[in-house]
Amino acid sequence: MPATIRDVARLAGVSPSTVSRALSLPDVVNPATRARVRAAAEQLGYEPNRAARGLITGRTGNIGLVVPDLANPFFPSVVKGVQARARLHDVAVFLADTDEDAAAEAGLVRALAKQVDGLILCSPRATEEELAAVARETNVVLVNRLVEGVPAVTFDNEGGMRQAIAHLVALGHRRIAWVGGPKASWSSAHRIIGLYAAARDHGVKLVDVGDFAPTYEGGMAAADQVVATGATAVVAYNDLIAIGLLARLHTRGISVPGDLSVVGIDGIAMARMSRPALTTVRLPKQKAGEIAVELLLAVLDDPDPDTIIATRGKLHGELIVRDSTGVAPDPARP
Amino acid sequence: MPATIRDVARLAGVSPSTVSRALSLPDVVNPATRARVRAAAEQLGYEPNRAARGLITGRTGNIGLVVPDLANPFFPSVVKGVQARARLHDVAVFLADTDEDAAAEAGLVRALAKQVDGLILCSPRATEEELAAVARETNVVLVNRLVEGVPAVTFDNEGGMRQAIAHLVALGHRRIAWVGGPKASWSSAHRIIGLYAAARDHGVKLVDVGDFAPTYEGGMAAADQVVATGATAVVAYNDLIAIGLLARLHTRGISVPGDLSVVGIDGIAMARMSRPALTTVRLPKQKAGEIAVELLLAVLDDPDPDTIIATRGKLHGELIVRDSTGVAPDPARP
DNA sequence: GTGAAAGCGCTAACAC
DNA sequence: GTGTTAGCGCTTTCAC
Asked: From B150's CA, which of A187, A233, B17, B91 has a CA 20 to 30 Å away?
């Protein structure tokens, strides 16, 4: 049975309102009283009941975080960032994993929306309309997704692809394969834009082998088609696909980077651990989570549309060169 | 501005209490009234405010989940399981990542405890006393940890190690190295117990190379010492260490499984993707999360100590044989 | 600077 | 079967 504000008030010999003030607006009460109240609160181990406070202030001190799939190592990083930053602000985080199920997502969002001050949404698959609708009903920050009028923190997907292509071109590659991810995803679209722009600028040939699941298995499935293109290098939609490529290429006796160079995107921990270690564009995932929290809190304090538009983050990726692109292409190959 | 119970009451032409009853105890109100109330609620998009309800019922419909580090792939799996099962019961999940910081953990737990019905704790590092203290103040379910009188879902660590050793012995190994994890961890202690028991039973020699960080780097650091033991096989505290071993062994030109067989534990996704693919004992991590939720909910409904003791889960691991133990040891090696 | 009173949205007694 | 009343723990007028 936790102590209530009345217990503290009784012990300190003051009224509940004074306790409330002493704790949340310290400078408005007499220092002596404040000290007495503090001591009483301490002694009783008193912590204000957030639900009760929220009922009256309209602020719960909680935020919600929705991710599509925690099994994809991309998202735990984001969650960790959100978590860490939220704790700094003494805000608690509700987490929901939608299991890539757009329908479940809608329900979860509705349920969560009632008990939080705002929502951070990683929703690669939801439609713009759905997201805009949610944003109308509650405070929302989007991660790696841009929707008109909704604050968001995004990655510089185009820039990431440019770095990848520039790196491969510098190594001498002239024919580069692309293994796509989920077609509907926002980041996929933007990665492709950057990819083609870079290929055009460098005057190199891009061969699209199609869209695959953004998983290890997806990469395994894509590998043979990549080989068939005759490309000397391949860029994958994400690291998981790239690592799947590596595995299947090894099985087929194709040397990486000897016969084929491989580049991923995301910079998940696993990329360091693959064989050969994977060259990738590291996206600051945890940072994205942290910024999303700051953004959300800023919007809560000032829901002015101008603020919202001004507070968009665009995070740049960093090319990490590892062994999977270590060698120039064999000029004997077509 | 979301609809309140009074809005629904007004629209349906009944009192707020009737609305409340119609929604939570449907069979106690007249079917006709119930239908009217339901329609009104629907029309207004009414969802009861959980905070307000919790204030009076004493139940928030929320649970808290504390994990030490989301960057360790073990924990996202547990979180996913908790998440999925909680959603089934219409319970929301607060997530806290303590960043392996025991001090932060205490604070987080206190803060969370106020706004949840119960806590699921993955706290490999907290002391028994700390955990017992938390359990006295709030409803707690422990994961992969056993403390007197506290409901818990654990893995059969001993059994897992027995399977690993039996597998290696069957392949002909007689001298097996052990790379330990964090000394203070509960599962480490139990893995060691199973390990030595199995070694004794099979009459094989175990060589302990010491304790290492439960990470890829930890495995890299341990590899050379493993080689120096002259063992033909090595069991690691977890998959991350095992994968680190694989990497360093490859660098040194030591063939796995040709020269040395490697076994991990946990069964993280990455284990399939290593080269060679890692033989491991797969622990049902997601299942553990699911069961933890069921356990917690059961305890909430019936905080009787007998129930608590009866409701302990012990989950068995499953040996997954992959290439890292594919071949019998070379008899030429000592 | 502090206390009394009202009320956030909801449910649980208690009447009827 | 339904309405009225009271109150969960807290903050916030409004007096003083």
From this structure: B91
